[in-house]
Amino acid sequence: MKKILLIATGGTIASSESEAGLLPTIDAKQILEYIPDIESICHLTGISIMSIDSTNMNPKRMVRIAEAINDNYKDYDGFVVTHGTDTMGYTAAALTYMLENVNKPVVLTGSQIAIEAMNTDAKKNLSDAIRFSCEELRGVFVAFDGKMISGTHAVKMKTRSMDSFKSINFPAVADIMLGKITVNSALNYGNHWEKLEDSNTNTFQIKTNLCENIFILKLFPGMKPSIFSFIKENYKGVIIESFGIGGIPSEEYDIVLEVSKLIEAGIAVVITTQCLYEGIDLNIYAVGKRLAKQEVIYAADMTTEALSMKLMWALGNYQNLKDVKQFIETPIFADRNY
Ligand code: ASP
After folding, report:
1. CA–CA gap between residue 284 and residue 295 (Å, rounded)
2. What is the pLDDT at residue 190?
3. How far is CA 182 from the centre of its chain?
4. What is the E.C. number (predicted)?
5. Is there a contact between 13 and 122 (Cβ–Cβ < 8 Å)?
6. Is the residue at 85 inside a domain?
7. Per DSSP, which regions of the chain are E strands?
8. d(CA 329, CA 318)
9. Number of domains into which the chain is organized
10. What pLDDT does residue 136 have?
């Protein structure tokens, strides 16, 4: 039987009603008591490393999750991390970059309704995540509402519904219905989740240097360029959520000029889009072409969740901006963009 470690961090899944509002209160062992039948498919151990609403997740806490996996790596075949849904997409992406050459499944899950409530989605999500963590697959995933999503493509789209997470710009890796996993056969099984027999010989290690000095700037018509001086003084990298396929104002409000000043000052400037689907291309419109002549970093079709964590990781691990650009623009797995 496979040995699986459940790492609890809090979230709605572990919450109860209190006078102050819904609050994470139960630990990993109590969570597992809600799904006793799962013991028939694997040996489960539960540890609680924090008990937070994931609104309060931050890079240092993400590092603690990576360290918990590292500390227990040799003793388990797979890992399930229970986590609040609000920032789960960010943590899943951060773990993807921090867990270098991870050779086992790491599956994040949570729920929209607390596990103690009658109509909860937690038991199904948790059982699905545990089943998936018993598969001979490697990488970081999010399990939610019967879907397994690659850890760098999971985005929370809805605040209340059970089908809250979507896989953006990449198909879901697998579906689970009534406990049966159907892996998406249309996928090219790159080294992300290929079968373990194909053996990954590179050694697993965690790389947890994350640079927190980054900023995400969403453009809007009429945004004053003055904010850029503040960014220049205070941050090492900025992600600009541009319009459409990569449009950045260049007339009365000349943001393109501000971008070039940032680049001259050695700030990493990443261009992404406010549109969730299909990514950027700066070579179509004149406004984009002016920008493309500068050393901006292209986000392709990455989600802002994945991009922000990839930028933190890149700035934490590389000194040189060329290396940061190359790392962000190169998919860490051969068959997709992240
Ligand atoms: N606010 C909660 C959290 O992210 C929401 C949830 O878990 O669904 O911790």
Report:
1. 17
2. 47
3. 23
4. 3.5.1.1
5. yes
6. yes
7. 2-10, 15-16, 23-24, 42-52, 78-82, 99-100, 105-109, 139-144, 147-150, 154-156, 165-167, 174-177, 180-183, 205-206, 214-218, 237-242, 268-273, 297-298
8. 14
9. 2
10. 85
* 132/263 same-domain check: no
Is 141 exposed, middle or buried (CB count within 10 Å of its CB: 0-12, 13-18, 19+)? Answer: buried
- Active-site annotation, residues: 12, 85
Provide the CATH number for the domain around residue 27.
Answer: 3.40.50.1170
Distance, CA of 249 to CA of 253 (rounded, Å): 6
CATH code, 223: 3.40.50.40
- pTM value? 0.95
Q: Is 86 annotated as a binding residue?
A: yes
Contact 12, 114 (CB under 8 A): yes
Compute the distance from residue 85 Cα to the ligand 1 centre, in Å: 5
Chain centre distance of CA 232: 26
Residues of the chain with pLDDT under 50: 190-199, 336-337
With H, G, I as helix, E, B as strand and everything else as coil, classify residue 157. coil
Ligand 1 surroundings by CB, under 6 angstroms: 11-12, 53-55, 84-86, 110, 112
Annotation-wise, does 167 bind a ligand?
no
- 162 CA to middle of ligand 1, Å? 13
Give the residue among 312, 319, 137, 162 at the shortest CA–CA distance from 238: 312
